[in-house]
Design a protein that fits this description.
Chain lengths: 160, 436, 791
């Protein structure tokens, strides 16, 4: 399969970092997913071949890690923390509001494919709670209102 | 990214370079960068370990194991290569400190890894960063490349004849992978299922070789100990609890943030002076002093010094430094329900008591908080948690059991209130937000 | 290593250093409950059932992962421990469906047993259990997720034990489940090991599902009738309208040479026995059509024709073809029947290995053959030719697990990259057909290396391999049918220089070694004694037998074609299909066939006798290693008979004194009664006939044990312990022909079966299970040839 040059060069150099090939698996899967949106059957076959693993082994690993997915997701994956610090600071309101605005439930994707929504566990922003990540970007000290604005911003960016 | 805060009581050691652009290698060098590695190379492994022992540094990842002692367990001669593994999986709810170190001072972590390597005779280190921290991975990858470019890493570092490589490694979403043996599995490209111990990683670790595993903050403290001396570091804290640590204040405090305070700092003071007290003028109800897994302290139990031993005596743990403050508007049943939802989500599933126990507790608490509780649930929650405690394959089961046991014990009345005034008396709309 | 002293529940004991606590406890009869622990598989520490109290340790410890240390003081029955076990069970049952009454494992479930012992049945859970529908993963394997307790035994047995790695663990936490290699279906060796090892009813077999309950079956331990490895198998039988039907195969009795192992054939391919096409009554061809007849009519018909032909044309006008799947007693009886009664040495069988040359090469070497158990324990193994993973599943298991558990060094030389190379310390690929040169090279002929060296395999590499092998004391040398005749001699010469070296010659089919040992050869009497030097047999048989070699199988066919062979008596063989014979060649010959099915060969017969198979009779089998084992009657179809009985009935009709054929009055050895009477079912069934003939029911000519008496007396190497044999234990025979070393073998007659895991000669064609696997549309065609999994 074709991936970006930066993917390939990172992959090649990472192979040299460990005594076993399969050690590169977890970070590589995430980078693959970043390029493809989700881990396709073809990608699974590809990485299994590259690392001399069975597809079963690859799938077993994928299904363990919560960031990895074998199903398509929206362009922007909105991940709002529901854990304790965020909850204490009003995460439930943010979650309820965004769900309503996007019209989707936990792990749902909007019809236009722009957003997916997910409640996630602690993302390491507890002192700046409530917090969320949209793809990899952090957005902190959320309120229902400012969270909605953040999404508006993404929507604008995404439809350009 | 995340805001920095400060308070006059702070003693800045690991946070010394925060906000000073130290992710840039030149800037780092101006701020005493890479001197610790050179010192370690010159004084040799035994002296490094002695310095570490003298510092009374205890692991900042949660368990608080003395770092110098951990390093000394690594056999001098080993048939397989030795490794240093930096644990940057930071996922314990309430904890957000490693993130700041990785963002503001990545080279100090690299330096800590190299010093650890010199101390135990290893030539390879890995810095594992959780997948969610993508921007920190990028910062770290750049820092490593810069260090290599200057010859600080790789062959013959600082002309010493000593070779040392440090590599970045990334996760993909799993709290359990922060557990040291699961971390090694993950790094080897597998599911994050812990290993049987003994043998401990210091003897049989990555790919069968002896491995030192330390938390990001632990390793970031090392260069400062090298330069300032173990005794100096020890003197900052309390007996057997050397130095300072980053406390992540969160929850219902007026001024949440990550503060570096000496070990032994009084919790009440931390909340009311450093943290500016309880928000909205509410009253303090409870504190989770060291990340979600630690037993909660009631308001009247908070007059305690924040070090490993004093908290242990108070029936809780210092843990990972995540201080979560709860005011009197908090429903403790919901708090526990949310904690349990987390552990159920993160249990790797390997062993029966953790897999089934967290699932059972979550289901019970979901129902209970939603108003469907029955009398025997309360005893049952306690029974299940007590039967998980100390019997699971790894400490994740304990992590789930400890808050449950403490909350049911200390706030039993709130559980009973739920039975009478269903649903949640504190929070009428609680039901709505409970996800599937 | 010195022993370690520990105390368990007050008992003091000394166990070898390195022993796991759970095993130490077991050694003094203290059973520590366990789910995930399984001897011989990697340690898990996952189920936490085995928690025990060890002094000086604050927490309870898992006995399955704890290695004993000097002075350890352990308690396994204190309240804290019992409480922990009970809680563990309660936790397990939280999501476990309590559908024991309909579960296949009900009555044989480890979870059920433990729940009973620890009284955890009352559920504290009032929330809804996680549910998922049952899935069919393959024709053989079904998975019921909610019943799974996550002990990972299946994953380990498939990976570590079978080297198939078809099962894995997906998801995490309470969503975790066992996943087959194609996510929702399974493509594998279908051995059923995972099903057998599953402590609960999560994995079940298509063959047995919901058919019956364990306690409604009778369990009979016997020997697998498929390949030549001779696994011990336990057949579950149940009454059926036609007798006793086999409904399940497993190996609950792990004492056999196969330990935990059975392949798909041993476990599930018993179903040929109840195939619809089974012949259930004698057939006689009249006007070109086979019509049902009574046994009397059939015997009469056969006797009449044979007598006529023998009188008119002499014994040499009659040929006999024996079977690789009848018992030793039947094969022995058949050759005796041919030689003594028909007066002919025209007797042969489908040869799949050159056992005569092997016997010749080993003449006068004591203890030179390895048993199947030896293969699991040898420090080093050399494997030349064959592909045991397909053709000798048990042998492959023994080799693999010897390497895994005992670190045996395996040397593989093959013309293909066979799967066992993955366990090999060295794999040498040589050109197809050059195995004889390899044998010559090993024996010291350096010039033979020319034919072998190519590419990476240099002459130096070959010489290094030879040197290495010479330095491997107690090496077991295993070779396939690629080596025949003088090549076997060379190989044996090579082995002679290695102290303690032993050999295994690989033949195909369940009793091909027995057929060879029992003298189904035109030139060899039982025990590879040349027909010209059979004094001991002649003496015992008390009548003259022909001493000139007879015709081999192909010569018989030629003679038939030429009209010289007037009759052919075929027992349990299908030469027409195997040797691809022209059916017209046999059109002028009177043919009698004993068979279960209307095979290509049986179709040509004038009289067909419906035969019982090895699961429906008693007797003995000899596996390819020479391990002798007892067959016990499990299934039964009332209207078919054993070949043994039918041969005797024909002999009787021919006017022969049965006492001469079967020394049933001369029995010299006590047989402790196990093989007779009610146990074997023989006495009951024949009581009426026996009485009519004035014979004593208890010592009947139909009791094959009487024949075994004679075999043990006369066949060299078969003088093994009768008591052990009757107790169901394997006994290693030896080939010590004790005759002239040059036995005339005819290597060109050897035709390997080339069976795969899913074929089994003619029998396999009638197994629904095997066919369903072969025809499974989800099995990728490319993978049918090479089912390998990359690791
Ligand atoms: C379930 C679980 C999760 C853990 N997560 C982390 C983590 O995210 N980061 C960390 O440094 N240590 C974590 N730990 C602790 C590590 O196992 C280990 O003790 C630590 O990394 C050792 O480093 P230290 O001695 O420097 O603290 C976790 C432990 C458990 C049981
Ligand atoms: S049937 Fe055999 S090969 Fe197939 S999954 Fe089960 S153990 Fe593995
Ligand atoms: S299917 Fe059976 S053997 Fe496999 S993990 Fe589940 S309970 Fe254990
Ligand atoms: S290996 Fe051979 S003897 Fe064993 S079960 Fe399979 S076919 Fe039968
Ligand atoms: S609890 Fe939400 S980021 Fe930590
Ligand atoms: S048997 Fe020991 S943990 Fe399962």
């Amino acid at each position: 399969m074709r991936f970006s040059d930066s993917f390939e060069s990172r992959f090649t150099s990472m192979l040299g970092h460990y005594p076993t090939k399969r050690s590169v698996l977890v970070p590589t899967l995430l980078y693959m997913q970043d390029e493809l949106g989700y881990l396709t059957d073809e990608a699974i076959r590809d990485i299994a071949q590259r690392l001399e693993l069975t597809e079963l082994e690859v799938r077993n690993v994928i299904s363990y890690y919560s960031m990895l997915t074998t199903r398509p997701r929206g362009k922007y994956n909105v991940q709002v923390c529901r854990n304790i610090s965020c909850m204490l600071c009003g995460a439930d309101d943010v979650i309820a509001h965004l769900k309503k605005r996007l019209g989707i439930a936990h792990k749902g994707t909007t019809a236009d494919g722009m957003f997916s929504f997910e409640e996630v566990e602690c993302i390491g922003a507890c002192s700046w709670a409530p917090a969320m990540q949209v793809n990899y970007d952090f957005h902190e000290k959320l309120t229902p209102e400012n969270a909605e604005k953040v999404l508006d911003e993404y929507r604008r960016k995404g439809s350009q | 990214m995340a805001d920095l805060v400060s308070h006059p009581d702070e003693v800045k050691v690991v946070s010394r370079r925060f906000g000073q652009g130290a992710a840039n290698l030149d800037r780092y060098l101006e701020l005493d960068g890479y001197k610790a590695v050179q010192k370690a190379l010159s004084i040799g492994p035994d002296a490094v370990i002695n310095e570490m022992k003298a510092s009374n540094l205890r692991g900042r990842g949660g368990a608080g194991f003395p770092t110098g002692m951990k390093w000394s367990f690594v056999p001098k001669q080993a048939p397989k290569p030795k490794y240093v593994l930096c644990n940057g999986d930071e996922s314990e709810p309430g904890t957000c400190k490693d993130r700041l170190i990785l963002e503001h001072d990545p080279h100090s972590v690299i330096e800590g890894v190299v010093v650890a390597g010199i101390a135990v005779g290893s030539h390879t280190g890995y810095i594992y960063i959780r997948g969610e921290y993508r921007y920190l991975s990028e910062i770290m990858q750049k820092a490593l490349a810069d260090a290599y470019a200057r010859g600080f890493l790789g062959k013959n570092i600082f002309g010493s004849g000593y070779d040392f490589d440090v590599y970045w490694h990334g996760g993909a979403g799993a709290y359990e992978v922060g557990e040291e043996s699961a971390l090694m599995e993950s790094l080897e490209g597998k599911r994050g299922v812990p290993r049987i111990r003994p043998p401990f990683p210091a003897v049989v670790g990555l790919w069968g070789g002896p491995t030192v595993i330390n938390n990001v903050e632990t390793l970031a403290s090392v260069p400062h100990i090298m330069l300032g001396g173990g005794e100096w570091y020890a003197s900052l804290g309390t007996p057997k609890n050397g130095g300072t640590r980053l406390f992540c204040l969160s929850g219902h405090v007026a001024k949440p943030g990550v503060y570096e305070l000496p070990l032994g700092y009084n919790l009440k003071k931390m909340i009311f002076e450093v943290g500016g007290g309880i928000r909205d003028g509410n009253k303090l109800k409870a504190v989770t002093p060291g990340g979600s897994s630690t037993p909660v302290l009631k308001a009247d139990e908070c007059d305690v010094g924040m070090d490993f031993d004093q908290l242990m005596k108070a029936g809780s743990m210092l843990g990972s430094g995540g201080v979560v403050v709860l005011d009197d508007t908090t429903c403790m049943v919901k708090y526990l329900q949310r904690i349990m939802m987390f552990y159920q989500h993160e249990s790797c599933g390997w062993c029966i008591p953790c897999r089934e126990g967290t699932d059972w507790l979550k289901k019970t608490l979901n129902r209970f908080h939603a108003g469907g509780g029955v009398e025997k649930d309360i005893g049952n929650i306690q029974y299940l948690a007590e039967n998980m405690l100390g019997r699971t394959f790894c400490p994740l089961g304990d992590a789930a059991a400890m808050p449950a046991i403490s909350i049911v014990k200390k706030y039993r009345n709130e559980f009973e209130d739920h039975l009478n005034g269903r649903p949640c008396p504190l929070e009428a709309k609680a039901l709505e937000a409970v996800p599937a | 290593m010195p022993d370690v002293n520990i105390t368990v529940d007050g008992k003091k004991l000394a166990v070898p250093a390195g022993t796991l606590l759970i095993e130490a406890c077991k050694s003094v009869g203290i059973e520590v409950p366990s789910f995930c622990y399984y001897p011989g598989l990697s340690l898990q520490g996952a189920c936490r059932m085995c928690l025990v109290k060890i002094e000086k340790m604050p927490k309870l410890q898992t006995a399955c992962t704890t290695v004993v240390t000097e002075g350890m003081v352990v308690s396994t029955e204190i309240d804290e421990v019992r409480q922990a076990r009970k809680a563990m069970l309660e936790l397990l049952l939280a999501n476990h469906p309590l559908d024991c009454p309909v579960c296949d494992a009900g009555g044989e479930c480890e979870l059920q047993d433990m729940t009973f012992s620890y009284g955890a049945a009352e559920s504290k859970l009032i929330d809804i259990k996680n549910h998922k529908d049952e899935q069919q993963w393959s024709p053989v394997v079904y998975f019921d997720r909610p019943r799974c307790i996550m002990c990972y035994r299946c994953v380990r047995i498939c990976g570590e034990g079978m080297d198939v790695w078809a099962l894995g663990t997906a998801n995490r936490g309470s969503a975790q489940l066992i996943m087959p290699n194609h996510s929702d279906y399974l493509e594998c060796e279908e051995c059923g090991m995972c099903i057998d090892i599953c402590p609960v009813g999560a994995l079940t077999s298509g063959a047995y599902r919901y058919k019956t309950r364990p306690w409604e079956m009778k369990h009979v331990g016997t020997v697998c009738t498929h390949c030549a490895d001779g696994c011990k198998t336990t057949l579950g039988v149940r009454r059926s309208p036609t007798g006793m039907q086999i409904v399940r195969g497993d190996n609950r009795d792990k004492s056999g040479i196969n330990g935990d192992f059975l392949c798909i054939k041993g476990r599930y391919a018993f179903d040929f026995a109840s195939h619809d096409h089974r012949i259930q009554q004698p057939l006689i061809r009249r006007e070109g059509r086979h019509v049902p007849a009574s046994y009397d009519q059939a015997y009469e018909h056969i006797a009449l024709r044979l007598k006529e032909i023998r009188e008119q044309h002499g014994g040499h006008a009659i040929g006999v073809i024996g079977s690789t799947r009848t018992s030793n007693e039947e094969s022995y009886l058949l050759q005796k029947f041919a030689r003594l009664l028909l007066g002919t040495n025209n007797i042969d069988h489908h040869r799949t290995a050159d056992f005569p040359s092997f016997a010749g090469a080993l003449a006068r070497k004591k203890d030179a053959t390895a048993s199947m158990r030896d293969v699991f324990n040898a420090p080093a193994i050399l494997l030349i030719g064959n592909d045991p993973t397909e053709q000798h599943p048990l042998l492959a298991w023994q080799i693999r697990n010897n390497v895994r558990l005992h670190r045996a060094r395996l040397y593989v030389v093959n013309s293909s990259p066979i799967k066992l190379r993955r366990q090999a310390a060295s794999f040498t690929q040589i050109p197809a057909g050059s195995e004889p040169q390899l044998a010559a090279f090993l024996a010291g002929d350096d010039s033979a290396a020319n034919a072998l060296a190519s590419g990476e395999i240099t002459r130096e590499a070959l010489a290094a391999l030879r040197d290495k092998l010479r330095g491997e004391p107690n090496l077991i040398i295993i070779f396939g049918s690629e080596l025949r005749g003088s090549s076997i001699d060379s190989l044996v010469r090579f082995g002679a220089a290695i102290s303690g070296a032993k050999f295994v010659c690989l033949g195909d089919y369940a009793n091909s070694r027995g057929a060879a040992d029992m003298g189904l050869y035109p030139d060899l009497l039982p025990g590879y004694v040349p027909v010209g030097s059979g004094a001991r047999f002649h003496e015992e048989w008390g009548a003259p037998v022909p001493t000139e070699p007879g015709m081999n199988l192909l010569q018989m066919v030629d003679a038939a074609k030429a009209g010289r062979l007037k009759a052919l008596y075929i027992v349990g063989a299908n030469p027409v299909a195997r040797y691809n014979l022209d059916p017209f060649a046999l059109s002028k010959t009177f043919i009698v066939a004993h068979d279960m099915f209307l095979t290509e060969t049986a179709l040509l017969a004038e009289v067909i006798l419906p035969a019982a198979n090895a699961y429906e009779k008693s007797g003995t089998f000899t596996n390819t290693c020479g391990d002798l084992q007892l067959l016990k009657k499990a299934g039964d179809i009332t209207t078919v008979k054993s070949d043994f009985e039918m041969l005797l009935r024909v002999a009787d009709r021919l006017g022969f004194d049965l006492r001469q054929l079967v020394p049933f009055r001369q029995a010299e050895r006590a047989d402790l009664g196990q093989s007779r009477g009610a146990q074997s079912g023989e006495a009951d069934r024949h009581a009426i006939w026996l009485e009519a003939h004035g014979l004593e029911p208890k010592l009947s000519p139909f009791d094959p044990i009487a024949m075994l008496d004679e075999i043990q007396r006369l066949v060299p190497g078969y003088d093994v312990s009768r008591v052990e044999l009757l107790a169901g234990n394997d006994q290693h025979t030896s080939i010590e022909a004790g005759v002239a070393s040059s036995i005339a073998s005819q290597p060109e007659l050897i035709l390997p079966a080339n069976d795969t895991l899913f074929t089994s000669g003619t029998l396999g064609r009638y197994s629904r299970t095997l066919n369903s696997v072969i025809e499974n549309p989800r099995r990728a065609p490319a993978d049918k040839a090479d089912r390998e999994v990359v690791v």
